[in-house]
# Entry
Amino acid sequence: MNFISFLVTLILTNIKSTISLRASFVLQSIFMAINNLIFFSMWWIFFGKFEDINGWRLSEIEAMYGFAAGSFGLAVIFGDGVREIARKIIDGSLDTYLVQPKNILIQAVVAKSNASGWGDLVTAIILLALSGYLTWKNLPIIIILHIAATLIFLSVGIISQSLAFWLGPIEHLAREIFEFVLTFSVYPQTIFPSAFKVLLFTVIPAGFVGYLPVEVVKNFSIPFLIVCVIAAAIYLLIAVYVFSVGLRRYESGNKIGV
Amino acid sequence: MTKYWEFIKIEFQQGMQYRGAALAKMGFYGLVLFIFSRLWKVVAIKTTLSMPAKDMLWYLAMTELIVLSFPLIHLEIEEDVRTGNLAYFLTKPTSYMWSRYARGLGSVFSKLLFLIFAGLFFAYLFSGGFPEKPLGLLLFLPLLIISIAVYLLFQMSIGVSSFWIQDCSPVYWVWQKMSFILGGMILPLDIYPSWLKSIAMNTPFASLLYEPVKAALTLDVNLAFGVAFKLFLWGLLAIFLLSLIYKKACKQLVLNGG
Amino acid sequence: METVITAEKLQKTFITSGATYGFLGSIKGLLNPVRNEIEAVKSISFIVNKGERIAFIGPNGAGKSTTIKMLAGILHPTDGELKVAGLNPQKQRQKLAYKIGTVFGQKSQLWPHLPASHTFNLLSKIYDLDEVTYKKRVKDLTEIFSIGPFLEQTVRKMSLGQRMRCEIVASLLHKPEILFLDEPTIGLDIVAKSIIRDLVKTTSELDSTTVFLTSHDTGDMERVCDRVLVINNGEILLDNSISEVRKSYIRRKRITLLTEEENVDIQLKGVKLIESLPHSLKIEVDSNMIAIDTVIQEAFKLTKLRDITVEDPPMEEIVQDIYENFKL
# Structure
């Protein structure tokens, strides 16, 4: 109970902090939505000319982009701190959480909220609505899929950022890995050879963010839904494990650059 | 003039130091080309494109080259405005705008050096050969430089606008996405519906991205001269716009003391 | 007396893999590891009693922050026994966290774009304070620290002194038994410094909070603390009460006299000339050998005085003195 109230307060404090800069908040969230939709208009043009991409039509692409934007948005609204973990490891700011009694990883991840995430969320709602997959029947599934994909984004962020425990200043690399997952999750994976698809469900788990969720709503496939949820749990476990091993290294003080 | 040449040189040298960032950009470049090489192959099986699938990829490689080589010059200007550095620059014998412009060019050239090779390599690798008219690549070089010279001016106008809007990134996002869509960065304007194409052709975006690349790939020297002339006119307009905003900003700076 | 910190033969050795920076460097390091051992803390022992205010001083790289990090549970010792607030920091870090508070002068724990009260509210959840206790505690501390007027103001807009007061309140909310302060007055002006010092001392006396303070400012050490630990090269050089240290090390005072006469020469035992300018004289007085007022009276005999300033020698010199004493 205490934990929930702590987590809620932490999240709200961050969100309040972004909203307090009102002009910037409005500008960022609205323009991010416009930005996404303009970018997406490429697909409207594309499907004005072409029929389908290996069986995927406009509605699937809309749903895919919606899922990716929505879960990315949630990830940066609730856990934008994830993109600063490497920096905190290097400059020692992690100490702040170590002297406090609550979970360090949670505090580090939920340390920041990004206003542009709300724009992503608006994009997701618009595109999912346009795709026709946003129905009452699908709603619970869509929410579950979003939560799973958000956790996958955050886990990838935690794992890549935690590399700094061993490798030192690699903020660039860590951010790039995060972006890679995002980039791959907004293109139809039907175009890739199957050998490559293996990569998208392992090293760069973009397949669970955009592709598989669309297959779930398209075919109302509960098994695929379960796969998404299990995948999220596995990635999260790996992330927690990698971070805690790294943290032990941090506590021993033998990190690079002491 | 020579002093501005020094600005170009120093920024170029500085740009050469950021190898990590350059590698990340090259990685992203390769990633995008890989994804679209697959996409065009899949689409080309069923539909006839306006140009060979191979050239579609080379088209993207060239437009991406222009877009990726841009420094975040609007953010640097925003920083100068926020910190009040701008007022300090005003006391120098060089024009702030032109020295920023020169530094911007220097930074672009340092990026181009890597990206041109990355582009040639990835486009050759993923498309399986040179474009139909390989000489077009040579024709592209001067057009590329003119396009960049003009694009930079527009981008700087956005930076100076931070005098009024504080956070100019959101505006830049939208500008950037407009140039993706109306400039036909990913999809050549030929496959756009004709109403949209005619709108796009009347914006600077089409002359910045679509037309130079089109002229190069079709090895159309007349078109190339036409584009160069159009870009020249857009450049004049951009200079006019920039100096207008800049003068207004300076007036405000003098009145309010930054 | 109740003991709150016991350190026995505490030791910390870092193992670094040489200068390997970045990704490529690390790969090189993996293939051809160069292991360097650095003994940051060699073997230190000390005991701190409840309510004591300790100044922990030493030059940069002496092992100060390594020791504090071990006490707070951030770093694990290589060897030795450590008990803080009855707990083992390495094994019971989370439990310990409820009993300690930390203020790191250069790192803020306040949310910059929100009023400080928002951070306090969050901290009340982090430390599981119940609503009633928390409200009362904030009320009390707000009064003591006089932060009421800017409590609802955005932290970003506060002055450094106001912010530091809020930082300290933030770390006292959960009534820690031990308060760790790292350079709490860095960057503050003289007035703000003395406010912070008085407040730390008052609150420590009020709740009998143990204070563990590191600083480069002699004033912090003199005005807040009653005991000083000097560390260098990972070893404790000196562990004594402030009054003793003052007697033996801060005995010298610097006096600057602005004189009516153009040239004044004071020749007394225990007085050393530092600088003589027209109408200005800077001397150093060894207060063990001669009383300050005697020196000033002597000066009065020679000339009319326009101004007198009496200062402590800078911390660096006191520490230097201590080191010299230990033949370092």
Chain B touches chain A through 34 residues (CB under 8 Å). Chain B has twelve helices and no strands. The CA atoms of residues 23 and 114 of chain B lie 9 Å apart.
